[in-house]
Amino acid sequence: MKVHLIDPARESVETVDCDGSLESLRGLIGFPCLDAEEIGTGGDCLHIDEECFLRGDAVVGRFQLDRLAPVWGRGVVTGRSRPDGRFGEPAIGLAALRARVRFR
Length: 104
Fold this sequence. Notes:
Blueprint: E1 2-7, E2 12-17, H1 22-29, E3 34-38, E4 45-49, H2 52-55, E5 62-65, E6 71-72, E7 75-78, H3 94-100, E8 101-103
Antiparallel strand pairs: 1-2, 1-7, 3-4, 4-7, 5-6, 5-8
């Protein structure tokens, strides 16, 4: 399946392969403790490092999605959670997501 990876170190938003498991999301983000924020009415979620605000400058780059607080490190956008415990593909398209992300 596909998810959208926001990488502020590279200032990029791209679609990448992922199996939708928490473990694969942790691998993309690079940290074990994740937090999620719903980012629209379609069920899409932004997954981030739960401790990103504590890490601060220890992580390269920040980004902001809409009016959410700026986030340190990578983020992954998925669709809603499925009955099997995995996350689905996001409803938002790549171009629409890119238009909503600012790098800081």
